[in-house]
Specification:
Elements lengths: L7 E2 L7 E6 L4 E6 L4 E8 L2 E8 L19
Antiparallel strand pairs: 1-5, 2-3, 3-4, 4-5
């Protein structure tokens, strides 16, 4: 999936509260309680990239590859 280039940050802003880690630690969902919004981040080698912000974390379902890796490998 091609995305427009976005800013990579070294750390998640302090206004965001970590809620859910996803898929081998590659994705992270945070919540900003003051704005009542959720943010999807992708963990990169040099920081975090903001992918999308939404009022509903279920909006991220189409972005995150939820297929679990075969645990018998």
């Amino acid at each position: 999936m091609a995305r427009a280039s976005s800013k990579i940050v070294k750390a998640i802003p302090s206004s965001e509260v970590q809620k859910v880690g996803c898929i081998n630690g590659k994705y992270l969902i945070t919540q900003n309680p003051l704005k009542e919004q959720f943010t999807l981040w992708e963990r990169l080698d040099d920081g975090f990239e903001k992918i999308k912000t939404s009022n509903n974390p279920l909006d991220f379902d189409k972005i995150i590859p939820w297929q679990a890796k075969n645990m018998q490998d």
